[in-house]
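Incident log, structure service

09:12 report received: a user says their structure output differs between two submissions of the same chain.
09:20 pulled the input from the user's history:
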Amino acid sequence: MNKSRTTRIIYLLAIFYAILGVLVLFAGCGSGNPVGTDEIMESPNAGPTVSLFIVNHLFSPIEIRVGDRLVGTVSRVDSAHVDVSSIPGVSVTWSMVPVKTTAGQKLGTTLRGSIAVQGGNQRLEITNVIGGEKYFGLLIGNSTSRELLYGINMGLSPPENRWEEKCYCPLSPQSPLTYVGYYRLMESTSIRVYSNLSDYSGPYDTWLRFSDGVDSESGLIILTVYAVPAGKTRLISP
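09:34 re-ran on a clean worker, output below:
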């Protein structure tokens, strides 16, 4: 084979592989997301992106979702910008990250709500009032020498008794303030404290009529138990 013929063959092969590469490139571009990507494709019906400025007054972080897709998180008692797209038929919601014990037990009520996405930038404030109902977040400490149990909204009549909460998770002696989640706040709301050995029976101390004393936006209230339960009604100091 002479030199000129070899050169022509190499030239033709180069052109062939160049054309093949272009065809592969265009085939990949027309197939949407590359194989193996974990990104979620936007709906073709998605509206314009809206920037939400979310102020979270709650003592728990919250998560923002479009449908089932997590699009942002706002830390407790903090604010953040979250960009969302309005998609017809798909809801935009927020939900509180639940408080859990070291054993994985969820404490309190998981607060949540929907977000009406409109045009332009929006400001949204998340407080302890959800759908017209109030909730309070509890920070509780045990300054006694015994383990204690706490219960929320115990001994109420129907339908309010559905808000009763007993966690069976003892507060250690001389334990600092511990955040234990959010609970329904009503005029009849109470907090009971028992000795841990009582299994929620026997003498208990009760804290009543504190709905006006909670923080107006976070709903947070602080309770430190200084005495062993002895059947007394006590007040939460401001």
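09:41 both user submissions now match this output. Likely a transient worker issue. Closing.
09:42 reviewer note: The domain at 49-126 is CATH 2.60.40 (Immunoglobulin-like). The first strand starts at residue 49 and ends at 56.
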